Amino acid sequence: IERIEKEGIEVWSINIPCGNMPKDILYRAGIFGLKILYKKIYSQHGAPDIVHAHFGRIGFISLKALSENKLPIVITEHLSLVLTKKLKNFEISCLKSCVEESNAFICVSSALKRSVLQLTGSNKNIYVVPNMVSPLFKYKSKQSNKENFLFLSVGNLVESKRFDITIDAFSKAFQGNEAVKLYIGGNGPQRGYLKQKINELKMNNQIFLIGQLTRQEVVEKMHECDVFVLASDFETFGVVYIEALACGKPVIGTRNGGAEDIINSTNGIIVDVNNVEQLAVAMEEMYKFSTRFDNQKISLDCSAQYGEKALIDKLLSIYRNLL
Question: Of these four, 16, 34, 156, 205, which has the most CB atoms within 10 Å of its CB?
C-alpha cells in the first residue's frame, strides 16, 4: 500500500501482482485489494461521503468491495470497448450491475450512453458529463496565412486513429501545394507504415511525422497550427478535440461517437468515418474559408462547456443530489 501527495491531493494505491490471469480472477483480486485499501483509509479519515469510480470495471469492483459500507457510489464509464460493443458476456453482466446498482452512472458522451443502454437494456437515468479540458490549453491569437498553412493531427499511431486516411485525404487535397503542411504528432506501431505511405505518395515535403509530444509540446503545436484534424474510427469522447478548441482552433473530425457531441458548424466540420473524399473536401474548405471561424469565440465556447468550473458544477450537482 502506498500513500503520496499529488497536486495537493492525498492519493492512496494498492498494487497486487496478478500476472496474466482470467478476468473473473482479476476482478476478485481487485475486490480483495480495495477492501484492504478502504480499511486503511477509513482508519485514517473515517468514512467518505462519496465514492466515485472511473471505468465500469473499477465501478463493479467498488460495488462489490464496499457493499457492506452503504456508501453512495458514482461510476463514470469511459471504455472504448463499451462504445464498440466488444464486451464478453461476463463484462456485459458487470456493466449491467454497475448501471443498476450504482447511485449515479455517468457516460462521457451521448454515443457512449446509447451503447450502455443497448448493452444493458436498462431503463435507469444515465448522466452525460464530458471530460474536462486542461487549463494548459488556452487561446493564443494567430494570423492565418495561406502561404504557410498548417494542419495538425495528434494521437497514438494505431489503426483506429486512421492517420492513413488523413494522409490520403491531405494528399488528394494539397499534393504539390507546398504552402500547406500536415504535422502528425505521436508514436505507435503504425509509424513505419505511415512513413512508407508518405514516401510512396511523394509527400515528404508536406507531411511530417513529428514523434511523441509532451503535453506542453502539444500546446505549442496547437498554437502554431491553423486547423486540427483527427479522423478516428471511434472515440468515447475525444479530449484532443477540446484541447484544440480551447486553443481557438477549428477542428475536423469524424462521426466516431464522441466527436458528434463536440463538433458543430461554429467550430468545425464533421465527416463520415473512413471517407477519404469527404475528409479531403473538408480540408480544402478549411484552407479556403478558415477565416470564417471566430477563433476567440471557439475558445470561449469550449471553456464554457468543458472548462473546470462547468464540469465541477455538474459533478457537484450529482453529488449533492445523492447526499
Answer: 34
Q: What is the pLDDT of residue 144?
A: 82
CA-to-CA dists, residue 132 to 156, 186, 240, 309, angstroms: 20, 21, 11, 9
DSSP string across 134-176: PTT---------TTSEEEEEES--SGGG-HHHHHHHHHHHHTT
Inter-residue contact 141 to 294 (CB < 8 Å) = no
Q: Residue 124 corresponds to which amino acid? A: K
Per-residue pLDDT tens for 259-301?
Answer: 999 999 999 999 999 999 999 999 999 999 989 999 999 999 9
Identify the H or E element spanning 4: strand 2-6
Amino acid at 24: D
Residue 292: CB partners within 8 Å, gap ≥ 6?
none
**By the 8 A CB rule, do 160 and 233 touch?**
yes
Q: What is the mean pLDDT of residues 145-164?
A: 96
Q: Which run of H or of E encompasses 210?
A: strand 207-211
C-alpha span between 121 and 123 (Å, rounded):
7
